[in-house]
Each structure stands twice: as C-alpha cells, then as structure tokens.
C-alpha cells in the first residue's frame, strides 16, 4: 500500500537553528499538508499546499515557517529559527482529492534544546 | 474549534462491536464526516468518510443520521490493536481537516 514517507524520524536541534523536515507524498496525490502535535495535545493544522502554492495556513504558520515542493516528489517544511515551543511531532499528509481521506506519514519528532 | 463533539473515552470488550458516537449538529449541507484514528504517537490513520448515506469498508461502518447532525463509527469486532484515539471531523472542499480531542477507545481482553 502506498505510503507517505517522512525523514528524519527524530531530529534534535539547538534553539535558533534552521531545520528542514522532509516528506515524500504518495506519487499521484495533489494536495499536501503539514500538521503538528505537541506532546499530549491535539493534532494541529499548519498549512495546505496545492499546485505549487499555499492554499491555506493557520495562525501557527507564521513567517518562521515555509513550505516547498522543490522537485515534484519532495515536500518540505522549513523552520527558520527554531524555538523551544516548536518541539513537537510534525506530520505530513497528502490526498488525491479534497473529498478523500488524507494519508499521513509516521511523523518527525522535533526536539529543540 | 473542531465543531464536533465526542465522548472523552470509551471501553469495549475484545471481539465485541465498538460504537463511537459523534455530534456535528451544525454541519453544513456539503460537508462530509471523516473518521481517523491515532495509535500512540503514530500519524493519524484515515478510516472512513460519508456525506448522507451509510458507508462500509474493510475497517469499519459509518452510520449517519437522516438529519446529519450525528454519526456513529462501528468497529464490528474490536481487537486489542483497535485501542486508539478516534477523531470525528467535518470537512470537504475547505481543504483541511481540523482535529479535536477525539475519543480514547480502550479495547479490553
């Protein structure tokens, strides 16, 4: 069964450093998403991406965040200057159609120290 | 604001049907009801979705009331591996799914 692949599974970074989280969505999917989940809290929507541009973003997704689909297969989330409160699980998801369910990756655990 | 209401937790005996309710009384006519689950800290897993009619797939059944104000996810023969947090979500062409607190289902031997 097709999967959404996320790398790395765990990343530790120092506060103020830039991090890039990587995702390979399912190949025929057109809509891409990033979510995050702080330990013990809800899954929170960050951003949706379609046709090489952001279609929607939450208030969490401020100027420190950016997304890119650099090569037609990868979908990346960049955090420019990490803060302690950015520590969370980050999930990538994709779907073929807005009315279908999303397929989520297994996540990247980001720890900012 | 997830716009759905679910019980915080439920228990179910292994092998029995698990019936998970969801209230979405303000759902609009073109919004679907989606169900996902999350096991431990894994990524959420899509289960099923529907608009008006009842739906069934290899994982579960979804019963939607005629007025569409509530729905029930049915796991017909729950196993220990079905222990998870189950999320009921409204969505559609808006293009994003907003997760609430969900229902923690514990399947007991």
Notes on the structure:
The complex is a heterodimer of chains A (113) and B (109). The mean pLDDT of chain A is 95. Chain A has strands spanning 5-7, 10-13, 19-24, 31-37, 43-50, 53-57, 65-68, 75-79, 88-95, 103-104, 108-112. Helices cover 0% and strands 50% of the residues of chain A. With 113 residues, chain A is mainly beta. Chain A starts with a strand and ends with a strand. Chain B has no helices and nine strands. Chain B has strands at residues 9-13, 18-23, 32-38, 45-50, 55-56, 61-64, 70-75, 84-91, 103-108. In chain B, the strands form two sheets. A five-stranded mixed beta sheet of chain B has the order 1-9-8-3-4, with no helix packed on it. In chain B, a hairpin with a 4-residue loop joins strand 5 and strand 6 (61-64). The interface between A and B is medium-sized, with 27 and 24 residues.
Question: Could you outline the blueprint of secondary structure elements for this entry?
Answer:
The complex is a heterodimer of chains A (113) and B (109).
Chain A: E1 5-7, E2 10-13, E3 19-24, E4 31-37, E5 43-50, E6 53-57, E7 65-68, E8 75-79, E9 88-95, E10 103-104, E11 108-112
Parallel strand pairs in A: 2-11
Antiparallel strand pairs in A: 1-3, 3-8, 4-5, 4-9, 5-6, 7-8, 9-10, 9-11
Chain B: E1 9-13, E2 18-23, E3 32-38, E4 45-50, E5 55-56, E6 61-64, E7 70-75, E8 84-91, E9 103-108
Parallel strand pairs in B: 1-9
Antiparallel strand pairs in B: 2-7, 3-4, 3-8, 5-6, 6-7, 8-9
Q: Assign an overall shape of chain A.
A: globular
Biggest sheet strand order of chain B reads 1-9-8-3-4
Rg from Cα of chain A: 13 Å
Strand content of chain B: over 45%
The poorly predicted ranges of chain B are none
One letter per element, helices H and strands E, the order of chain A comes to EEEEEEEEEEE
Percent helix among the residues of chain B? under 10%
For the largest interface in this structure, which chains are involved and how many residues does each contribute? A-B, 27 and 24 residues
- As an assembly, this protein is heterodimer
The share of residues in extended strands of chain A comes to over 45%
Query: Measured on Cα atoms, how large is the radius of gyration of chain B?
Result: 13 Å
Terminal CA distance of chain B reads 35 Å
What distance lies between the first and last C-alpha atoms of chain A, to the nearest angstrom?
Answer: 36 Å
Structural class of chain B: mainly beta
**Treating each run of at least 4 consecutive H or I residues as one helix, how many helices of chain A?**
0
Largest sheet of chain A: 7 strands, mixed
- Mean pLDDT of chain B, to the nearest integer, reads 92
Low-confidence stretches of chain A: none
Query: How many beta-strand runs of chain A?
Result: 11
